[in-house]
Design a protein that fits this description.
single chain; 528 residues; alpha+beta; 6-stranded mixed sheet; 14 helices; globular
Length: 528
């Protein structure tokens, strides 16, 4: 009986914990320049053609997660017998003038939609109609399939250093393998479970002298995990922590990487320390705008870190742990905030908190799959452990192309969940830092205030350490002026999906919809 390609406990958790109003996919928004005529790759068609040609290099993109009967084990990856590329690769167009407002209204709508678990867990949209003849590519992939670091690896498959690209790998036509029978999946699950148990017992019998060492290691791990238990201290109440609804708002910010490095060089620490300090500045700016008292407050933010090594560079799935940083958000000199962040990050690294978190994740993997599924039906909307998430994933520092089009800007976009109403993610690319700020549509109508606070924060950090201001990025959608929405009172109830969309019978006033073309129906190609 062949071995089944089973999801890990962590990967499966992202499926179990997903709800209609909290889809758990990661996404990227890529802005390309207008393209010259390249034989066989004319702009938009070149992007489509490149994705179609490279798809065989990432077989997971033609597979779906198949549940095991009765939830006896984690789902398994199987070839989709009905795979249809036109369902996953879609085309849309923005209304004039094709600026930041039109683009983000459209992207926020499709970012809020869950992926279909009955199909391969990804979608891509090529978006025309941007100013200056530019194109955008929005791609979302379920978190069960990919984490941030492996996402960068996949992007390097679809993108090229050479404008003319490379010859596609010649592969045989896709012929999906037959789906495993339900009885086969149950038998394989039971066999794997008894096999793991038997190997553990046999190892202890054959090598009893190793048991004490393992017990010492377990105690050491428990000691590290004990440090994490201090994180159970409740975080401050915040307008960032409200039940998440079904719709999203997005704000983009681009900052020259040279500016962050100049601050780092003048003060010590790392670029990531500078980014976190700038986020603290942005939260201070936002809370001041809202009129929320926050002097000397500290927000706890989760900073995901990769624990994969070079041998796992192209492996799909999740190999991430987390560091929990106490981020000062009260009004203070920017230099003091940066010093506090640098000290906190150094302390966490010395105590190897990320390793302890990884042990905690490993322990979660011991729980039966059925328990994971039951836990996924719970909603932790009242959690008081975190105020936000700040994810920083390094990218390549040279220009990339796809279908002959040069990649100008790249913005990571993460999901919202629980009562985390704002999440910030940043990636570096070709000399720039690109921030994607995701906010709940109702709770954070002023999400652009956080973006403005990031820009202000970098300026304050530069002045505070006497750094020479580096050249900023010119142009770009994130550099356009934005309209700041006045602060609103705290939402008292969560609106349902029907109310948010103004569905018939909801009794709600429909929310204004952007004029951008929507994605086509499955199997159709939408014309601009």
């Amino acid at each position: 009986m062949p071995t089944l390609d089973r999801l890990t406990a962590l990967d499966a958790t992202f499926l179990h914990y997903e709800h209609a109003h909290t889809p758990l996919h990661v996404a990227g928004l890529y802005i390309f320049e207008g393209t010259p005529d390249i034989p066989g790759r004319p702009g938009l068609g070149g992007l489509f053609q490149t994705i179609a040609e490279r798809l065989p290099e990432v077989p997971r993109y033609r597979q779906r997660a198949l549940p095991v009967p009765l939830g006896l084990g984690q789902p398994v990856w199987v070839d989709d017998p009905d795979f249809d590329l036109s369902y996953h690769l879609r085309r849309a167009a923005l209304p004039a003038p094709g600026g930041v407002t039109e683009l983000l209204d459209y992207v926020a709508r499709i970012h809020a939609r869950p992926l279909d678990h009955r199909r391969p867990l990804w979608e891509a949209y090529v978006i025309e109609g941007l100013a200056d003849g530019r194109l955008a590519l929005y791609n979302k992939t379920h978190h069960a399939m990919i984490d941030g670091i492996s996402g960068v690896d996949l992007a390097t498959i679809l993108l090229d250093r050479d404008p003319e690209g490379r010859r596609p790998t010649v592969t045989a036509p896709f012929r999906p393998a037959a789906l495993p029978a339900g009885t086969q999946m149950v038998a394989a699950t039971l066999r794997e479970g008894f096999g793991d148990l038997g190997r553990g017992v046999a190892g202890a019998v054959r090598r009893p002298w190793t048991v004490p060492g393992r017990m010492v290691g377990a105690v050491a791990g428990t000691t590290q995990i004990g440090r994490l238990l201090s994180l159970l201290r409740p975080v401050p109440e915040s307008p960032l922590n409200v039940p998440v609804g079904a719709a999203r708002r997005i704000s983009l910010v681009s900052i020259s990487l040279a500016r962050a490095k100049a601050v780092k060089n003048a003060s010590g620490g790392t670029v990531n320390d500078v980014v976190l300090a700038a986020v603290g500045e942005a939260f201070d700016h936002f809370l001041t705008h809202r009129g929320v008292a926050h002097q000397e407050q500290v927000y706890r933010v989760m900073v995901p870190v990769s624990v994969r090594d070079e041998t796992e560079r192209m492996a799909l799935g999740n190999r991430v742990a987390a560091m929990f940083v106490d981020l000062p958000v009260g009004s203070m000199p920017a230099r003091r905030r940066l010093a506090a962040v640098t000290h906190a990050m150094k302390d966490l690294k010395e105590r190897r908190q990320a390793v302890a978190a990884d042990r905690l994740i490993a322990l979660a993997g011991l729980a039966p799959a059925t328990l994971h599924g039951l836990a996924g039906r719970l909603e932790f909307t009242n959690q008081r452990l975190l105020n936000s998430v700040v994810s920083n994933v390094p990218g390549v520092q040279y220009p990339l192309y796809s279908g002959g089009a040069r990649l100008l800007e790249t913005y990571p976009l993460l999901p919202l969940t629980a009562n985390l109403g704002v999440i910030i993610c940043v990636t570096s690319y070709n000399g720039g830092l690109y921030f994607g700020i995701i906010g709940d549509y109702d709770a954070v109508p002023d999400v652009d205030v956080i973006g403005a606070g990031l820009r202000r924060g970098f300026e304050r950090l530069e002045r505070s350490v006497g750094a020479t201001r580096g050249q900023n990025l010119g142009g770009g959608y994130a550099s356009e002026a934005v309209t700041v929405v006045p602060a609103v009172g705290r939402r008292t109830r969560r609106r349902t999906n029907a109310a948010l969309n103004g569905s018939p019978g909801s009794g709600a006033t429909p929310r204004p919809q952007p004029a951008a073309a929507d994605g086509p129906a499955p199997g159709q190609t939408q014309q601009p």
